[in-house]
Amino acid sequence: MLEVRNLNVWYDNLQVLWDVSLHIDQGEIVTLLGANGAGKSTLVQSIFGLTRNVKGNILFEGKEIAGMHPYEVVKRGLALVPEKRELFPKMTVLENLELGTFARENQDNVDFEEIFSLFPVLDDRRHQLAGTLSGGEQQMLAIGRALMAKPKMLVLDEPSLGLSPLFVGNVLSTVKMLNITRGLTILLVEQNVQHALELSNRGYIMENGRITAEGGGHALLQDDQVRSAYLGV
After folding, report:
1. Is residue 195 part of a domain?
2. CATH code at position 164
3. Which residues lie below 8 Å from residue 77, measured CB to CB, with a gap of 6+?
4. In a domain, 179, yes or no
5. What pLDDT, in 10s, does the model give residues 89-134?
6. Looking at the predicted structure, is the pLDDT value of residue 191 above 90?
7. How much is the pTM?
8. Which of 58, 69, 100, 102 has its CA 20 to 30 A from that of 94?
9. Residue-wise pLDDT tens digits, 23-56
10. 144 in a domain, yes or no?
11. Confidence (pLDDT) at 110
12. Percent of the chain as helix, strand, coil, to the nearest 5
């Protein structure tokens, strides 16, 4: 569904990604792992057209999307849950969800009940300002906003960042449920290595702007280098 081929990215004259290649097949959960500064968020931003100095190919459903504007990428069926959520804090829960529908061709009869059934607490908070929600509730809202676009594929950038262990489990369980019950293809950029690889079909390791390893989720959990670098084993 998504394929990145030999992607190189620069910020001004500083190169930050080198020949990055990966793919996510339809129906998969794929995790991208790496330390802070490894280039994970730059890769995500490049997929969504948020970096401009790019060389290489990014294909979604076999069609080139590199160089497209972000709104064009979203209209193709890709949705992003950004790092740190990036909600509109002075708008209500309902208003933030409404903004997620901008890419839908049919704006009539927009239904919020699907999101409220997935996250009942958002139903109770629908008229509350997003900035007054807890961190876990804000993450639910960020996921719900992305789902309002009716995406074919969901990209989550560090969804457990800053959350309590309880909310981390809830968020990652929701990711798995969306994949199983809705067949949603998911790219998960995550710092919680153990939980992320347990629920993933495959994973990639990124170091210093390069993909250095890949494999099945459970296979990577047993890899000595991964266990030493990311699990402290």
Report:
1. yes
2. 3.40.50.300
3. 60, 61, 151, 152, 153
4. yes
5. 999 999 999 999 987 766 666 778 989 999 999 999 999 999 999 9
6. no
7. 0.91
8. 69
9. 999 999 999 998 888 999 999 999 999 998 999 9
10. no
11. 72
12. 35, 25, 35
CA distance linking residue 220 with residue 195, whole number of Å: 12
Contact 115, 97 (CB under 8 A): yes
H-only helix segments in the chain? 40-47, 70-76, 93-99, 113-118, 120-124, 135-147, 165-182, 193-199, 217-221, 224-230
- The DSSP symbol for 158 reads S
SS3 (DSSP) at 115: helix
- Residue 6 DSSP class: E
Please count the structural domains in the chain.
1
Q: How far apart are CA 171 and CA 140, in angstroms?
A: 7
Question: Which 8-state DSSP code applies to residue 108?
Answer: T
129 belongs to a structural domain? no
